[in-house]
Amino acid sequence: MDKAPDQGEALRRLRRLRQLLAGYQMSRALLAADELGLIDVLARGGATADELAHATATHGPSIHRLLRVLRSAEVVVEKDGRFFPGPLASGLRDLGTARLGVESYRAWAELAETLRTGKPAFERVHGTGFYPYIAQDAARTLRFDDAMVAISRAWIPAVLAAYDFAGTRVLADVGGGRGTFLASVLAAHPGMRGILFDQPHVVAHAKAVLAAARVRERCEIVGGSFLDSVPSGADTYALSNMLADWDDASAVKIFKNVRRALTGAGRLLLVDRMFPPPDDPSYELVALLDLWFLVVEGGRIRTQEEFERLLAEAGFAIVRVVRTQSELAVIEARLEPVRSD
């Protein structure tokens, strides 16, 4: 018979449960700090609660109460009645998590309905899918694109350090956004050329990114939808940090479009997360992120076995998986030989 927990252990469990249940309160406090621009104001040299309220057109006593919460989360620090950015303040902006959260937070209230139906709650709440909703407003689009660029800063250097692109003559970055990843690869490989492919309104902002990396002359920019087709002319196609946005049927469709464009002994690179085993330190974070994709977009983070199955449906086979010092791995796949039987 199990021994009943002592009073101290029972209290610890109760506090842990309260902390978990209150998680949404902390996340919303962080999102509010980002929405109101509090960190930007504090970065100018600190401020009192009243000065911060005046700069952000908010209620002083209420802002002070928020600051106490942000202090407990190490987002701000207090000295002599003035508040300054704390150890986690830059991460709140650089990781882009706040900007993503602002767009999706309301959908989480409908998680139970998503679990009943298997359909994203975002569309139920906002009346349209995540990406159409983002595209409705230029400010939303800019916030989202900025967030994607910020997130890419965490994994691009790790991918470049771990994966050898030697032998690639033309790299096509499918769904490559503004071209941050492609620009980084081309800058590291002066003999390589690139094709940047994404929706027209997305790649419209790519020229400045490619020019800043001094690779614009080596890169062709193409607008379109990878659900319809992808440009030909590359020997390596990369799908970077984007497959979790899509359900299995769409993923297979994208793979098949790449196969139609790929010739010879080319390769397909999936730069993406793979769902880790339960004993992995990142398991909790990945599990929550996977649930985010379910609630917001209807996609998923896949295991290696799931990637193998979907790639096989499109005629690809995984030849190696290269781990990196980031959350993402590089899955290299090549065309399977055509059977004659």
Mean pLDDT: 90
Helix content: 40-55%
CATH superfamily of the largest domain: Vaccinia Virus protein VP39
| Coarse shape | globular
Q: What's the story with the biggest beta sheet?
A: 7 strands, mixed
**Level-2 CATH architecture of the largest domain:** 3-Layer(aba) Sandwich
Write out the strand line-up for the largest beta sheet, numbering strands in chain order.
5-4-3-6-7-9-8
Helix-strand string: HHHHHEEHHHHHHEHEHHEEHEHHEE
Span between termini: 62 Å
3D structure, described in words:
It is a single chain. This protein is α/β, with parallel strands linked by helices. It has 2 domains: 7-94, Winged helix-like DNA-binding domain superfamily/Winged helix DNA-binding domain (Arc Repressor Mutant, subunit A), CATH 1.10.10.10; 138-335, Vaccinia Virus protein VP39 (Rossmann fold). It has 17 helices and 9 strands. The chain has helices spanning 7-21, 23-35, 38-42, 49-56, 60-72, 89-94, 97-104, 111-117, 121-126, 130-135, 138-162, 180-188, 200-203, 206-212, 248-261, 283-296, 304-313, and strands at 76-79, 82-85, 170-174, 193-198, 219-223, 236-240, 267-272, 316-322, 329-335. The strands form 2 sheets. Strands 5-4-3-6-7-9-8 form a 7-stranded mixed sheet, sandwiched between helices. Strands 1-2 form a two-stranded antiparallel sheet. Strand 6, helix 15 (248-261) and strand 7 (267-272) form a beta-alpha-beta unit. Helix 2 (23-35) packs across helix 7, helix 4 packs across helix 5 (60-72) and helix 11 packs parallel to helix 12 (180-188). The longest helix is centred in the middle third of the chain and has 25 residues, at 138-162. The protein is globular. The model has no long low-confidence stretch (mean pLDDT 90).
